[in-house]
Amino acid sequence: MATVTRIRATRRWAMLALGVFAQTASAVMVNGMPFLLPALTDRGMPLATAGLLVAMPMVGMVCTLIAWGYAVDRFGERIVLAAGPAVMCVTGVAAAMVTNYVLLGFLLLLAGTGAASTNGASGRVIAGWFPADQRGLAMGIRQTAQPLGVGIAAMAIPAVAHAAGFSTAILVPATMAGLAVVGCLAGIIDPPRPPRGENHSDNPYRGDTTLWRIHGVSVLLVVPQATLWTFALLWLHRDGGLGLWQAGLIVTATQFLGAAGRIGAGIWSDRVGSRVRPLHTVAIAALVSMAALAGAAWTHWWWAAIPILFAASVITVADNGLAFTAVAELAGPYWSGRGLGIQNTGQHLATAAVPPVFGALITAAGYPAAFAVAAVIAAVAIPLVPLRTAR
């Protein structure tokens, strides 16, 4: 029995690693395309046109997250974790071979639809195979895929684009996706599900607001997170007087600390036996840290502003894994794919709204006002956390 348990535990962690790799490949495809902007604009493409082109994978992903979630609930995790990266690989390779920008945009859109598959499927594998007292840790590790993907994209895509052209750079996520297909087909096993019945397959959204409240909390708390990701470098450079390389180093360091913070939040939730109680604490901490950052930015106390920025960068991403795990657990084995799709769709739509809305706010009133508004939005999330739920 001990040997079987050890093998099963090893297999669980191996499947987590495969899910993280597939999710990282998706992150490189979706979040890495903006790193092609220098290469595209150097070829004479207007910045607005180039921006639209590199946004296509994100558009494709947002439009299909819920559909892929339904596919997970209907057909299982293994087939989705293979099919989505296969789409990403094929369309990425095709995109690297075309010269027509309209066709390139269409292929990047299709690649984004494939990238969407890994969000819910990798989360369902964790929810299905890991016991409750390890699930927070496992989901926290899974949530590091996004900063890992951004880091890989930042290092690889501009370098490849400079050396071999922007089309060749698209092969970076396409190759990763191809490897993910092989790995997931070989290593992923669909988690066991109980027989369909009244307690397992009923719509968890019907007659209960718990999941909707968690979705709402996540949408609100992603605003401070996206505000820091989008504007921290520019704020440090323009208001703080730091060089771009210095500001970039600080922002990169906050990404790594944020990844560690996601894992720490997951361990915390395992130990207290709840996802929503830590989520409530994180929402309060997000309010405090963003308000403190607004104050430091307004007074130009840079000796305080940079340490607060590090703290806020860790705090504002800590809710992601907590909410994701809570949705997977509360939605159940036959609805968690769609629940995670809804969760990601709301967060991505809110993230997409931050650059134009907060960019206009910063132009009109400055960075302190933007950080203060983000703090207010975090405050709105606090009473929405459904503390009465079991987990």
Structure, explained:
It is built from 18 helices and no strands. It is an all-alpha fold and 391 residues long. The longest helix is centred in the N-terminal third of the chain and has 31 residues, at 2-32. The model is unreliable at 1-6 (pLDDT under 50). The protein is 81% helix and 0% strand. Helix 8 (132-142) packs antiparallel against helix 13, helix 12 (210-238) runs antiparallel to helix 13 and helix 12 runs parallel beside helix 17 (336-365).
Please report the distance between the alpha carbons of the first and last residues: 30 Å
Report the average pLDDT across residues: 87
Order of helices and strands: HHHHHHHHHHHHHHHHHH
Percent helix = over 70%
Question: What can be said about the biggest beta sheet?
Answer: none
Runs with pLDDT <50, length 5+? Answer: 1-6
Keywords:
81% helix; disordered N terminus; 18 helices; globular; 391 residues; single chain; mainly alpha
Kindly summarize this structure in a few lines.
By secondary structure, the protein is mostly helical.
Secondary-structure topology with pairs:
Layout: H1 2-32, H2 37-42, H3 47-54, H4 56-75, H5 77-95, H6 101-115, H7 117-129, H8 132-142, H9 145-164, H10 166-169, H11 171-187, H12 210-238, H13 244-272, H14 276-299, H15 302-315, H16 319-331, H17 336-365, H18 367-381
Helix pairs in contact: 1-6, 1-7, 1-9, 1-11, 4-6, 4-7, 4-17, 5-6, 5-7, 5-11, 7-8, 7-17, 8-13, 8-16, 9-13, 12-13, 12-16, 12-17, 12-18, 13-15, 13-16, 14-15, 14-16, 14-18, 16-17, 17-18
